[in-house]
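A.,

Following up on our hallway conversation. Structure tokens first:
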């Protein structure tokens, strides 16, 4: 995890209600100080702003079906800019240029070592751990542009956290309940068992073309229930609170601010 205490930020290892400082290397944490109470620190995005963010589209059958898209024959990849990263509790800001901002709960895979052309059988050895991701999307820009980078990469459109659970704590990433709550109402409710392409396949497939480095993030796709497929569409509004919950990892909560009407407006 990353945290801020008395104006200084650092990496920490969470055990119970205590945070132990662990130097500055996410992939090689080494204790360097005494434990700090968790409630004394501010949680930050666990990833560095230099991280690559590789995302997977249409990776749940039910989501592909609700969008009317054909199932992909291999992982459909796109990217989000790292400038879109924010941490737990930070606001998702609706920009002036969009009024169709959507939520997407996703399992995040954090890379722990240089990963280049690894076979599927070796992929898990390259995973540091797992986290919650909200692949916030401006649907009007995403669909209007014909490609997805701008609609997916606006500032604050990649909340991540609240921490990274190391892979030894999650022996099977394909058996995790995943949910999205909008103002405490469950709007997405699925399991990572429903992915079309599992974590091992994604890590291997991506590494055939792109060298992944420690701290890079793979956002593994979202299940059904997103806002733009609903009748009527349900987009984020100022005053909303979005929560991504994944079993064994935790809850990532972010308020919504910015332009447009508030809740009920």
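Then the amino acids I'd put at each of the 265 positions:
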């Amino acid at each position: 995890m990353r945290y801020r205490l008395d104006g200084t930020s650092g990496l920490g290892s969470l055990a119970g209600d205590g945070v132990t400082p662990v130097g500055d290397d996410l992939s090689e944490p080494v204790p360097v100080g005494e434990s700090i109470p968790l409630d004394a620190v501010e949680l930050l995005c666990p990833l560095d702003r230099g991280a690559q963010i590789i995302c997977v589209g249409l990776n749940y059958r039910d989501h592909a079906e609700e969008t009317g898209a054909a199932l992909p024959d291999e992982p459909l990849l796109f990217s989000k800019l790292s400038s879109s990263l924010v941490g737990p509790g930070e606001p998702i800001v609706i920009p002036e240029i969009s009024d169709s901002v959507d939520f997407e709960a996703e399992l995040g895979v954090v890379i722990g070592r240089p990963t280049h052309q690894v076979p599927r059988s070796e992929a898990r050895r390259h995973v540091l751990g797992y986290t919650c991701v909200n692949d916030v999307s401006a649907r009007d820009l995403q669909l209007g542009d014909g490609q997805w980078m701008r609609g997916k990469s606006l500032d604050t459109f990649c909340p991540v956290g609240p921490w990274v659970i190391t892979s030894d704590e999650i022996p099977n990433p394909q058996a995790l309940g995943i949910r999205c709550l909008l103002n405490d109402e469950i709007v997405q409710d699925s399991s990572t068992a429903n992915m079309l392409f599992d974590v091992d396949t994604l890590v291997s497939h991506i590494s055939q073309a792109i060298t992944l480095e420690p701290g890079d993030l793979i956002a593994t796709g979202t299940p059904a229930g997103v806002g733009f497929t609903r009748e009527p569409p349900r987009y984020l509004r100022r005053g909303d609170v979005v929560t991504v919950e994944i079993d064994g990892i935790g809850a990532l909560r972010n308020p919504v601010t910015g332009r447009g009407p508030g809740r009920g407006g």
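The CA atoms of residues 142 and 257 lie 20 Å apart. Curious whether your intuition agrees with the design.

B.
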